[in-house]
Amino acid sequence: MPGSLGAILTAMVTPFDADLRVDEEAAVAMMHHLIEHGSDGLVVCGTTGEAATLTDEEHLRMIELAVTEMRGRCTVVAGVGSNDTRHAIELTEKATALGADAMLSVTPYYVRPNRRGIVRHFEAVAQATDKPIVLYNIPSRTGTDMPNDLLAELAQLEHVSAVKQANNANLALIDGLDVYAGNDDILCRTLELGGAGGILVASHIVGPEMRRMFDEPDRRREVDAGLRDIYQALSVTSNPIPIKAALNLLGHRVGGLRLPMVEADEHELATVREMLERHGLLQTVQT
To answer: 0.90 cut: is pTM over it?
Structure first.
Protein backbone atom coordinates (compact mmCIF):
# COMPACT_ATOMS: atom_id res chain seq x y z
CA MET A 1 0.00 0.00 0.00
CA PRO A 2 1.24 3.53 -0.67
CA GLY A 3 1.81 5.98 2.12
CA SER A 4 -0.94 8.41 3.02
CA LEU A 5 0.60 10.93 0.62
CA GLY A 6 0.56 8.53 -2.32
CA ALA A 7 3.21 6.36 -3.95
CA ILE A 8 4.63 8.42 -6.83
CA LEU A 9 5.45 11.95 -5.74
CA THR A 10 7.32 14.23 -8.12
CA ALA A 11 9.88 16.68 -6.77
CA MET A 12 8.78 19.43 -9.13
CA VAL A 13 11.02 21.93 -10.89
CA THR A 14 10.30 25.62 -10.49
CA PRO A 15 9.88 27.15 -13.96
CA PHE A 16 11.51 30.52 -14.62
CA ASP A 17 10.88 33.00 -17.41
CA ALA A 18 13.55 34.64 -19.57
CA ASP A 19 14.38 37.05 -16.74
CA LEU A 20 14.60 34.19 -14.23
CA ARG A 21 11.42 35.22 -12.48
CA VAL A 22 9.09 32.45 -11.33
CA ASP A 23 6.78 31.60 -14.24
CA GLU A 24 3.49 30.82 -12.51
CA GLU A 25 1.62 29.93 -15.69
CA ALA A 26 4.29 27.40 -16.63
CA ALA A 27 4.31 26.06 -13.06
CA VAL A 28 0.56 25.39 -13.19
CA ALA A 29 0.94 23.70 -16.58
CA MET A 30 3.67 21.46 -15.14
CA MET A 31 1.51 20.56 -12.13
CA HIS A 32 -1.31 19.42 -14.38
CA HIS A 33 1.09 17.52 -16.64
CA LEU A 34 2.53 15.62 -13.69
CA ILE A 35 -0.74 14.53 -12.14
CA GLU A 36 -1.99 13.47 -15.57
CA HIS A 37 1.14 11.34 -16.03
CA GLY A 38 1.41 9.10 -13.01
CA SER A 39 2.03 11.35 -10.01
CA ASP A 40 -0.06 11.02 -6.86
CA GLY A 41 1.44 14.15 -5.40
CA LEU A 42 3.79 17.07 -5.90
CA VAL A 43 6.71 18.16 -3.77
CA VAL A 44 7.17 21.88 -4.32
CA CYS A 45 10.16 24.00 -3.32
CA GLY A 46 12.53 21.14 -2.63
CA THR A 47 16.01 20.58 -4.03
CA THR A 48 14.71 20.07 -7.57
CA GLY A 49 12.56 23.18 -7.17
CA GLU A 50 15.66 25.31 -6.50
CA ALA A 51 14.33 26.35 -3.11
CA ALA A 52 17.78 27.60 -2.13
CA THR A 53 17.50 30.51 -4.57
CA LEU A 54 13.84 31.38 -4.03
CA THR A 55 12.88 34.27 -1.81
CA ASP A 56 10.47 33.40 0.99
CA GLU A 57 7.77 35.29 -0.91
CA GLU A 58 8.37 33.20 -4.05
CA HIS A 59 8.67 30.02 -2.01
CA LEU A 60 5.36 30.51 -0.22
CA ARG A 61 3.64 31.63 -3.40
CA MET A 62 4.63 28.38 -5.13
CA ILE A 63 3.14 26.42 -2.24
CA GLU A 64 -0.03 28.53 -2.36
CA LEU A 65 -0.28 28.03 -6.12
CA ALA A 66 0.04 24.27 -5.81
CA VAL A 67 -2.57 24.07 -3.05
CA THR A 68 -5.01 26.29 -4.95
CA GLU A 69 -4.59 24.59 -8.32
CA MET A 70 -4.34 21.00 -7.14
CA ARG A 71 -6.79 20.92 -4.23
CA GLY A 72 -8.39 17.50 -4.19
CA ARG A 73 -6.53 16.29 -7.29
CA CYS A 74 -3.27 15.29 -5.62
CA THR A 75 -1.32 15.74 -2.43
CA VAL A 76 0.92 18.79 -2.03
CA VAL A 77 4.07 18.40 0.03
CA ALA A 78 5.77 21.70 0.84
CA GLY A 79 9.53 21.96 1.13
CA VAL A 80 10.08 23.90 4.36
CA GLY A 81 13.65 23.04 5.31
CA SER A 82 16.31 25.45 6.47
CA ASN A 83 19.63 25.35 8.28
CA ASP A 84 18.20 27.94 10.69
CA THR A 85 15.61 26.36 12.98
CA ARG A 86 13.75 29.64 13.41
CA HIS A 87 13.43 29.97 9.64
CA ALA A 88 12.30 26.33 9.29
CA ILE A 89 9.63 26.94 11.92
CA GLU A 90 8.42 30.07 10.13
CA LEU A 91 8.19 28.30 6.75
CA THR A 92 6.45 25.33 8.36
CA GLU A 93 3.87 27.51 10.06
CA LYS A 94 3.16 29.48 6.89
CA ALA A 95 2.96 26.41 4.65
CA THR A 96 0.57 24.83 7.15
CA ALA A 97 -1.63 27.92 7.05
CA LEU A 98 -1.60 27.84 3.24
CA GLY A 99 -3.08 24.33 3.33
CA ALA A 100 -0.22 22.07 2.22
CA ASP A 101 -0.93 18.41 2.95
CA ALA A 102 2.51 17.68 4.41
CA MET A 103 5.91 19.23 5.06
CA LEU A 104 9.28 18.08 3.69
CA SER A 105 11.92 19.04 6.24
CA VAL A 106 15.59 18.51 5.42
CA THR A 107 18.42 17.94 7.86
CA PRO A 108 19.96 21.36 8.62
CA TYR A 109 22.66 21.79 6.00
CA TYR A 110 26.11 23.38 6.12
CA VAL A 111 26.10 23.92 9.91
CA ARG A 112 26.31 20.12 10.45
CA PRO A 113 24.57 19.89 13.84
CA ASN A 114 25.33 16.93 16.09
CA ARG A 115 22.72 14.33 16.97
CA ARG A 116 21.29 16.28 19.90
CA GLY A 117 21.00 19.35 17.71
CA ILE A 118 19.18 17.43 14.99
CA VAL A 119 16.69 16.06 17.52
CA ARG A 120 16.09 19.50 19.02
CA HIS A 121 15.65 20.98 15.54
CA PHE A 122 12.97 18.49 14.53
CA GLU A 123 11.28 18.73 17.93
CA ALA A 124 10.85 22.45 17.32
CA VAL A 125 9.67 21.99 13.72
CA ALA A 126 7.17 19.30 14.75
CA GLN A 127 5.57 21.73 17.18
CA ALA A 128 4.96 24.21 14.35
CA THR A 129 2.42 22.13 12.41
CA ASP A 130 -0.40 19.66 12.71
CA LYS A 131 0.38 18.19 9.28
CA PRO A 132 2.55 15.14 8.54
CA ILE A 133 6.28 15.81 8.39
CA VAL A 134 8.49 13.99 5.91
CA LEU A 135 12.08 13.95 7.09
CA TYR A 136 14.63 14.41 4.30
CA ASN A 137 17.94 12.59 4.65
CA ILE A 138 20.32 13.67 1.90
CA PRO A 139 23.89 13.75 3.25
CA SER A 140 25.37 14.40 -0.21
CA ARG A 141 23.79 17.86 -0.04
CA THR A 142 23.67 18.58 3.70
CA GLY A 143 26.97 17.12 4.89
CA THR A 144 25.16 15.26 7.69
CA ASP A 145 23.65 11.78 7.62
CA MET A 146 20.74 10.69 9.79
CA PRO A 147 21.37 6.99 10.53
CA ASN A 148 18.40 4.68 10.82
CA ASP A 149 18.45 4.55 14.60
CA LEU A 150 18.17 8.35 14.68
CA LEU A 151 15.30 8.22 12.18
CA ALA A 152 13.57 5.70 14.45
CA GLU A 153 14.04 8.10 17.38
CA LEU A 154 12.61 11.01 15.37
CA ALA A 155 9.64 8.82 14.39
CA GLN A 156 8.51 9.09 18.01
CA LEU A 157 7.86 12.82 17.55
CA GLU A 158 4.26 13.82 16.97
CA HIS A 159 3.53 14.50 13.27
CA VAL A 160 6.81 12.98 12.01
CA SER A 161 5.42 10.30 9.72
CA ALA A 162 7.77 9.58 6.82
CA VAL A 163 11.30 9.87 5.51
CA LYS A 164 12.64 10.68 2.08
CA GLN A 165 15.73 8.49 2.11
CA ALA A 166 18.36 9.82 -0.27
CA ASN A 167 21.24 7.86 1.23
CA ASN A 168 21.04 4.62 -0.73
CA ALA A 169 23.28 2.83 1.79
CA ASN A 170 20.75 3.50 4.58
CA LEU A 171 17.72 2.16 2.73
CA ALA A 172 15.67 0.07 5.16
CA LEU A 173 12.22 0.10 6.71
CA ILE A 174 11.97 2.29 9.83
CA ASP A 175 9.44 1.61 12.57
CA GLY A 176 6.93 4.42 12.66
CA LEU A 177 7.85 5.95 9.29
CA ASP A 178 6.67 5.57 5.71
CA VAL A 179 9.87 5.20 3.70
CA TYR A 180 10.10 6.98 0.35
CA ALA A 181 12.92 6.50 -2.13
CA GLY A 182 14.80 9.78 -2.29
CA ASN A 183 16.74 8.77 -5.40
CA ASP A 184 15.12 7.41 -8.54
CA ASP A 185 17.48 4.46 -8.77
CA ILE A 186 16.25 2.96 -5.49
CA LEU A 187 12.52 3.17 -6.18
CA CYS A 188 12.40 -0.52 -7.13
CA ARG A 189 14.34 -1.57 -4.02
CA THR A 190 12.18 0.64 -1.81
CA LEU A 191 8.97 -0.87 -3.12
CA GLU A 192 10.33 -4.40 -2.79
CA LEU A 193 11.19 -3.71 0.84
CA GLY A 194 7.62 -2.61 1.48
CA GLY A 195 8.30 1.13 1.36
CA ALA A 196 5.60 3.67 0.55
CA GLY A 197 6.93 4.89 -2.80
CA GLY A 198 9.30 7.54 -4.04
CA ILE A 199 9.89 11.27 -4.21
CA LEU A 200 11.24 11.33 -7.72
CA VAL A 201 12.73 13.40 -10.53
CA ALA A 202 12.51 11.17 -13.60
CA SER A 203 8.74 11.06 -13.11
CA HIS A 204 8.68 14.46 -14.81
CA ILE A 205 9.28 12.59 -18.09
CA VAL A 206 8.48 8.90 -17.42
CA GLY A 207 5.82 9.16 -14.76
CA PRO A 208 3.53 6.46 -16.19
CA GLU A 209 6.41 3.97 -16.31
CA MET A 210 7.40 4.72 -12.72
CA ARG A 211 3.76 4.37 -11.76
CA ARG A 212 3.81 0.88 -13.27
CA MET A 213 6.56 -0.08 -10.85
CA PHE A 214 4.03 0.39 -8.07
CA ASP A 215 0.93 -0.87 -9.86
CA GLU A 216 2.51 -3.95 -11.48
CA PRO A 217 4.83 -5.53 -8.91
CA ASP A 218 5.39 -8.63 -11.04
CA ARG A 219 6.99 -6.46 -13.74
CA ARG A 220 8.72 -4.05 -11.38
CA ARG A 221 12.28 -5.20 -12.03
CA GLU A 222 11.72 -5.30 -15.77
CA VAL A 223 10.41 -1.73 -15.81
CA ASP A 224 13.23 -0.57 -13.54
CA ALA A 225 15.85 -2.14 -15.81
CA GLY A 226 14.41 -0.23 -18.75
CA LEU A 227 14.70 3.08 -16.90
CA ARG A 228 18.27 2.72 -15.63
CA ASP A 229 19.86 4.75 -18.42
CA ILE A 230 17.32 7.52 -17.81
CA TYR A 231 18.41 7.75 -14.17
CA GLN A 232 22.02 7.81 -15.33
CA ALA A 233 21.47 10.56 -17.90
CA LEU A 234 19.61 12.68 -15.35
CA SER A 235 22.65 12.36 -13.09
CA VAL A 236 25.17 13.59 -15.67
CA THR A 237 25.53 16.75 -13.56
CA SER A 238 23.89 18.32 -10.52
CA ASN A 239 20.11 18.12 -10.22
CA PRO A 240 18.02 19.95 -11.46
CA ILE A 241 20.22 20.91 -14.43
CA PRO A 242 19.55 17.73 -16.46
CA ILE A 243 15.82 17.48 -15.78
CA LYS A 244 15.29 21.11 -16.76
CA ALA A 245 17.27 20.46 -19.95
CA ALA A 246 15.11 17.41 -20.69
CA LEU A 247 11.86 19.25 -20.05
CA ASN A 248 12.86 22.16 -22.25
CA LEU A 249 13.82 19.77 -25.06
CA LEU A 250 10.40 18.15 -24.72
CA GLY A 251 8.66 21.50 -25.12
CA HIS A 252 7.78 22.20 -21.50
CA ARG A 253 8.44 25.83 -20.62
CA VAL A 254 10.61 25.56 -17.53
CA GLY A 255 13.37 28.02 -18.45
CA GLY A 256 16.85 28.28 -17.04
CA LEU A 257 18.39 28.10 -13.58
CA ARG A 258 19.45 30.66 -11.02
CA LEU A 259 23.09 30.95 -10.07
CA PRO A 260 25.04 29.18 -8.76
CA MET A 261 23.24 26.57 -10.89
CA VAL A 262 24.01 26.93 -14.60
CA GLU A 263 22.39 25.47 -17.69
CA ALA A 264 23.59 22.21 -19.20
CA ASP A 265 26.73 22.43 -21.29
CA GLU A 266 27.10 20.86 -24.75
CA HIS A 267 28.11 17.42 -23.45
CA GLU A 268 25.42 17.32 -20.76
CA LEU A 269 22.74 18.45 -23.19
CA ALA A 270 23.82 15.83 -25.73
CA THR A 271 23.65 13.13 -23.05
CA VAL A 272 20.10 14.14 -22.13
CA ARG A 273 19.01 14.49 -25.77
CA GLU A 274 20.38 11.06 -26.71
CA MET A 275 18.53 9.48 -23.78
CA LEU A 276 15.25 11.11 -24.80
CA GLU A 277 15.69 9.97 -28.39
CA ARG A 278 16.65 6.45 -27.33
CA HIS A 279 13.39 6.12 -25.40
CA GLY A 280 11.26 7.61 -28.15
CA LEU A 281 10.43 10.64 -26.03
CA LEU A 282 12.09 13.03 -28.46
CA GLN A 283 11.96 12.15 -32.12
CA THR A 284 15.32 12.37 -33.90
CA VAL A 285 15.27 15.21 -36.40
CA GLN A 286 15.69 13.87 -39.92
CA THR A 287 17.82 15.93 -42.29
So the answer is: yes
